[in-house]
Amino acid sequence: MYRTGEPPGRSLAVSTAGLTKRFGDRTVVDNVALAIPSGSVCGFVGPNGAGKTTTIRMLLGLVRPTSGGGTILGGSLAEPATYLHKVGALIESPAFYPQLSGRDNLKALARLGRIPLTAVDPVLERSGLLARAADPYRSYSLGMKQRLGIAAAMLAGPELLILDEPTNGLDPAGIVEMRGLIKSFADDGITVLVSSHLISEIEQICDQVVMIRAGRLAYQGSVAELRATQQAEFLVAPEHDADRDLLAGLLRQAGCTVTPGKAGGLLLVEAPGADAAGLNRLSAQHGITLRQLGERTRSLERAFFALTGTKSADVPDGQEMGAIR
Known about the structure:
Blueprint lengths: L11 E12 L2 E7 L2 E3 L3 E5 L6 H8 L7 E6 L2 E2 L10 E4 L11 H11 L7 H7 L15 H12 L6 E5 L7 H16 L3 E6 L2 H7 L2 E6 L2 E7 H6 L4 E6 L5 H10 L3 E4 L6 E4 L5 H10 L4 E6 L4 H9 L17
Parallel strand pairs: 4-9, 4-10, 7-8, 8-9
Antiparallel strand pairs: 1-2, 1-3, 1-5, 5-6, 10-11, 12-14, 12-15, 13-14
């Protein structure tokens, strides 16, 4: 299930067709058609080994596609030189000289890229590192190292920013800081492609999402549209546990799918087209008083389970999936 084609009224920063990469007999990326709107923050998610990193490397000209092609910021994927000067990237862990300061590391990169040295301090300030710019890189925390990597990616003033696992290894405070930084880029009209296995983070910062499974697209479109595809689920519990079986039978007769929970009279109810008020009325009509009735959040995690074939039973009872390993 995926959408392709240019969204109405929006140009595409990334557009591919039939993008495929094989290593020997193994197909890692299979006929992928990306359509990432300009100015969006797009999450790129999938299990490890799904083909995310290989796809990103093809977009950056680091790996040549076996077949297929596309355009990046109007330049041909077959000719990376036509667009790479407008692309910034943070792939895996950033590498810097440990003995040099953050500022001097960026100056070295600027000289290599023939970028004016006047670009260094603005990106340090943007990434929240200006106060520590004179400190050696080896003294930086993991979060600061990640932010310096993003500052390096921003040196040339890119129109497209590709970030591979930017929150990997960060503590909660660092994740919040990174989240705000990424959102600020979108506010400036920069297109951001964020690869991550943290579905909860994608849900927090992205308005578009691409889900990939075994090298193939499982979904492509807006986060809101994907969340809306999830069937309504309710947690329902009668006041008296003895009424649970009767309530479950009534709900099934009404077309609901009912799964008994482990906690007392709790039921998990999948109710196509139903709402909380309707479930409450049905219970009351048969003399059953409810002590709990609540709709579960329609999260991207549940959508991922459905679209990638991952079973929700693989997640500990009562928990949402925080990460895909």
